Predict the 3D structure of the following.
Amino acid sequence: MPFIPETAYTHSKLQSADGTWISFSTIGSGPGIVILHGTCRSAYNYKKLAEELADKYTVHLMDRRGREASGPQGADYAMEKEIADTGTVLQHTGSTILFGHSYGGLVALETARVYAVTELVVYEPAVSITQSIPCNWLPRFEQAMEEGRQMDAFISFLTGLGLDENIQHMPEHFVKSALQAMSQRSPDHWNHTLGLLPTIVPELKEVQRLDSTLDNYRSIAARTLLISGANSPLYMGNPITQLLATLPEAQHQILPQCGHNGPDEQAPSKVAALIQSFLREQQGNIIHSP
């Protein structure tokens, strides 16, 4: 894929319902699609995905609240804030296509219950069913953050969720050595990640609060594509089966040789291809419907 300069993007800010500023970057032309990043991520991590879609779509990369470009999560942070933020961007841009990854996928599902979304694509949304998403590491994470041990906090996050197949069975001291090497090789990327650590606890607590509320998604009218990685932990893949049985119009695609971080790190071009194929299919169904 050819290099795309930063000047190809336009940058905008909108005020959400509670007055918080929400930033988003836009690239491409065509129907509008809004992209929602996952936990400990920002719009920056999804630029490759956006650029793969930009030849057919106008892609709006949101920085969810708590990220540097947007306003703070706030003391009264809740999913309802995320829904309002996303709805503000959808309505301002006229977009009706929504993509979300991980916690952003949970936000996308919740938003599609409230706003007019015609096509919904979610990659392993953080849907917890009977506490299926592990959160027993949160106290350890919070203590490390309170004591200023950011590296230890990040390790708790990585090993607690076990989303990276490369470190699932790696001893903790090896993980620490690998992260220390990464911080020296890519200090800007490392500092970006550290800046996102405070957003983790409020988001995971919303995952816990919304545990086992799957039936709420029966009201979603959007045509939906659920994507999962073949190498992801079972607890991320298992809710997909129940979502398929719950959502009125849903289909499922498995991405081979890929894990939870398919859209941002491992295979953004493959994820973009699945999204484009799904959207072409939906457009064809509309054109050929009687």
Observations:
- Strands lie at 10-15, 21-28, 32-36, 58-63, 97-101, 119-123, 223-229, 250-255.
- Residues 69 and 160 are 28 Å apart (CA to CA).
